[in-house]
Amino acid sequence: METTPIAAAPRASRTSAWVTAGIAAAVFALGLTFALKTTDAPTHAFAIFKLIHVVVAVFWVGGGILLTVLALRAERAKDPEEMAHIARQAVFAGERLFAPAGLVVLAMGITMVINSHEIGFGTTWVDIGLTGYALSFATGIGVLAPMSRRIVSLLADKGAAAPETQAAIARILLVARVDIAVLLVVVADMFTKPFS
Predict the structure, then answer these.
(1) What is the model's pTM?
(2) Are 24 and 105 part of one and the same domain?
(3) Same-domain check for residues 113 and 21
(4) Which of 3, 52, 62, 103 has the least CB density, counted as fewest CB within 10 Å?
(5) Where does residue 123 fall: left (phi above 0), alpha (psi -120 to 50 degrees), or beta otherwise?
């Protein structure tokens, strides 16, 4: 029986990394070109802030929706190991990806309001967006982060199949669903700009 040399795997991984970096650079260059050629923004800087705001929001909210769908699938399967795997992924994504993404979205949104003469704080749809962000931020810091740490501890101490672990995972996934619902309301608000 023939085997693949061990050296082939790192080479394939390096190739994948270079291809991914090339795709990211091309998307970045195209997005920047679009931002600099837009006719829908008061300035080029505003267009770039808006581009970053929207792209990072898509990453944040889209990632949260994906985790929610995967969690629903795992719950239906009633597989403790799959539930634990989703919970671990959610902990990683929440702390390392979504929290920083949320801050970038907030910073770019505030920057756009400051740099615009057409929108401002006190505009209803801006205030709804800020309120939704504040609710999501408070939920993340005050509820999801402590629950995540507890789940990591339960997984290590009692295992994925323990009823206490499964109950904690079910609770955090329910809270995460509510958080995603709040973010979807913010997306609808940002898109439709109601009451303006």
Answers:
(1) 0.84
(2) no
(3) no
(4) 3
(5) beta
